[in-house]
Design brief:
This protein is mainly alpha-helical. The protein has a domain of 91 residues: Orthogonal Bundle (Rna Polymerase Sigma Factor, Chain: A), CATH 1.10.1740. It is built from 5 helices and no strands. 12% of the residues are buried.
Amino acid sequence: MLECGLPTPSVPARRPKKVRRLSPQGAYGFPLITRRTEDRIKTRPHAPDTLMDTSDDKRIIEAVLAGHVVQFGSLVERYQKAIYSFMLRLSGSPSDAEDLTQEVFVRAFEKLRQFKNNRRFFPSLATIGVNRGRDHLT
């Protein structure tokens, strides 16, 4: 009792705040973003080392232009995953993304003669993908 004669209110004991522990995968299963460069490289699955190999791309493009059309398949295998994932984010539908990816590679094959061989192939392919995706959305 208090000195004034009123009963002391009963206050429940405070529970400690729940601390949310993050798994190595992050809160929602996504990789954690860290400031260390080696960790960032490991968490970027969309940037394989093969995207930066331009000398091999030039050799393949020269072979395709010389008549070895089957060689274009190796470019498709190399960049298909990157273009498909972009189209999937853009369209939201796996079937639409597959169709758009195929259209991007068909368009790239048709325009291969206009490709400047002193430039990298993937940025040109990505530009075709952006334009095809924009057409799909309109």
